[in-house]
Amino acid sequence: MTTYVAGFLVFLIEQSIFRSIYSVRLRTRESWGFPELKRSTLIRSLQTPSHGFQRPPGLWRVEGGAPILSEFFSGPQLDRVYLFLFFLFSFFFVRSFFVQGISMPNSTHATDVIVIGAGPVGLFAVFQCGMLGLKCHVVDALDVVGGQCAALYPEKPIFDIPAHPSITGGTLIDKLMQQITPFQPVFHLGQQAVSLSQAPNNAWTVKTSHDLSITAQAVIIAAGAGAFGPNRPPLDNIRDFEGHSVFYMVRRRQDFAGRRVVIAGGGDSAVDWALSLVDIAESVMVIHRRAKFRAAPESIRQLEALACEGRLELVTPYQLSGLEGGDGRLTAVRVATLDGEERRLDADVLLALFGLATDLGPIASWGLALAHHHIPVTPSTCATSAPGLFAVGDIANYPGKLKLILTGFAEAAHAAHAAYSLVRPGEVIHFEHSTSKGLPGRD
User: Fold this and answer.
1) How far lies 97's CA from each of 2, 104, 361, in Å?
2) What whole-number distance in Å separates Cα of residue 420 and Cα of residue 422?
3) What is the structure's pLDDT at 192?
4) Per-residue DSSP letters for 43-73?
5) pTM attached to this predicted model
């Protein structure tokens, strides 16, 4: 229905545009099989044998007083131009609204479940809902699906996904998208969920930063740790090098091939990227303020083994103290110990991997019980303090919680099954394994 309304608006707009160019009258049907447009009548013109019609200023007018662009076409030719421009204009007008997904003001939608967050756990929540026959709308502030996996670490290997000894963040998201395709979820990307309200019938309405309203009986919050940004080292001139020689994440591993890389940090990200880049970089040096790293034991063992082999250097116990270079190009990184001992490390690139600063944003004002920037939930259902609201993934917390993607996947299943009773009250879930029931809608 909305498409027909837009088509009618297109018709009205194009009429006002083209009538300002030339006036038209209907005449008898000819070659087109439709009523044709009468050729505009020339009031005054000048014709020369060598150049045909030319346009002296102010001489060319049409009936009705509107100026014309040219009298170069005959009647049928002018009709073809008119219709071509009309359909071209109509195509791009409608496409901008309905293909590219640009939200119209005060747009409203109704669905079974709203999922806030399009990271891996949010996507798997869509799958679990789909297996129960529940439709989902997904809202994410990023303009791509995948959350941090896609935006920050698309090429970082993940080692703890079942049946995948190693899989990159980007590949994981691609496979999750393939998995949910049969359920046709609706995505609202590039817009933040700014408010949440409940109606007397217990339905929840999420309003986005694009003035979009979505109503559902259940909401699954899979927002990770909220909005995120880098923890920037306190160096005076670091912003001069950001985006050129200083980075807080690795988007493309190959960008560091043949370069002198200095990695600052002592956690899993710093250690994992040191292990990954050692095979392609000219050199790799890892700076940490202590000799002991905070990463997976096996990763630390591999890191120390590479250092013993001379394939990379562990610069401990040092901290960043300064950067050298100009015009965004780094030439050296200065480091120092707490005792004041200094070193100068030749470098092309600094990877400052000190984690991310996170912010719950509007979620913090939704009236939910919070604990240390997390949402406490009941482990068996992932229900929050508000009936109908569920939280899964890194944003959810309970005693003994393990912050793993695998844990988030299990939480998504719990939340979807708990939401079913709200969306389909009175109906009982007859639990079946996917090998028995297959995908809903498929034979």
Assistant:
1) 10, 7, 28
2) 5
3) 92
4) SS-EEETTTEEE--TT----TTS---S-S-S
5) 0.62
